[in-house]
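Readers outside the structure-tokenisation community will struggle with the description of the input data as it stands. For illustration, here is how one protein appears when written out as sequence plus structure tokens:
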Amino acid sequence: MQISSSRSRARSRGRHAASSTLSVRGAVIAALFGSAISLAHAETPSFSALLARAQGSAPQLLEQMANVRAAQADVRQASAWRNPTLDATFENLHAPETGGVSQRQDTYALTQVFELGGKRAARIEAEQHKAVATGTRERQARLTFATELALAYAIAEAMQERQAVAEAALERAGDDLRAAQALVKAGREAELRLAQARASAAAASAAQQSAVADATEALARLAALVGSSEPFTRIDHPFMARVAAAGTASGTAAATAAAWTPEQSPALAAAAAERDAFVAQVRVEQKRAIPDIGVSLGVRRFAWSSERAATVGVTASIPLFDRNRSGVDAARERANGAALRVEAARLDAVAARRAALAQAAASEQRLKAAEEGETAALEAYRLGRVGYEAGKTPLLELLSIRRALSEAQALTIDTRLARVRALAALSLAEGRLVFGEAP
């Protein structure tokens, strides 16, 4: 009975090990098959092509273009002359007749109001400044969108690389499990080691599934940002490595030595344009109290003789009760507030560039250290695997080395992403694109 029970337990352990191995192999095959399917789909355009495509499809950019067209229409509308008015006056209706003759008089007059004192010119100038401010905000929005698109593109590529790291970790976990099974079968390892290898393989499978979901989400967000109705499947044009290499080649010291002024900041330029628009509005409010002159030309018909006579009239508004003093004061305070926002934007621009320069320099050093750490971790896993198969390295140490390798690879991906984010922040602070594309 004891021998039979031992054999049944051995067979059960063998079936369980075989089932675990098949499940791990199935997960690896499914991951590889999923990658092959994604490769069969249409590839995601490069960042340059995607940025060019987004100019006509991204909702954020289309909104800014509509704002610019509206501001240009406001300028055209501001230059329009005031419409004339047609007046018709009928006098002496049902009045007593004189000698049997009607005393009725009908007068028709056309009145044109003229704006004096440069009212129309001031209004046109104010709308032109508003249009300039709208155009400046539109350029700022394009730079901001290009930066957001670069980050979304880099995040999608990073999630895709994380998926590849998770798939490689799952494959290594399967190899470690098979090696543990062979050693247990040979009597060189205890059953506990096999259970630990199975747990590690299951954890690697769960991490792989999570990485797939993260990559899918990042690609969907990228498609939504550029206004694409169809989701992207994968990134086929390396972006993070190219940006990091371009930033390293240009050098942070060169960026520091470059001639840069705070006026190149898009936020400061937008604030200055809004200040000029508020200042122009002050002149509009100051001229509101100037009287408008209306000139009327008309004709009057007399009922008793059917003869006609010309009429001429002049009207003028009298600024007796309302001289728009409070309106002028309000416009001046708005202009003062806009001027203070310009100074705040200037300080923010300088501080943002200094911080971006520091982050760019630090990200370059972190990337070098992360890449060196990944190389060392890869070599450590290779040596640990050789030692485990030779019976010199414990399984727990091998699993720890494998986790360290996955963490080192993930750290390199995160550091590349941080490098892109730092260079994007620096380019936005300086009002340019470091990626070689024009906004």
User: Anything to note?
Assistant: DSSP finds ten helices and four strands in the chain. Confidence is low (pLDDT under 50) at residues 1-42, 252-257. The first strand starts at residue 85 and ends at 91. The CA atoms of residues 72 and 355 lie 37 Å apart.
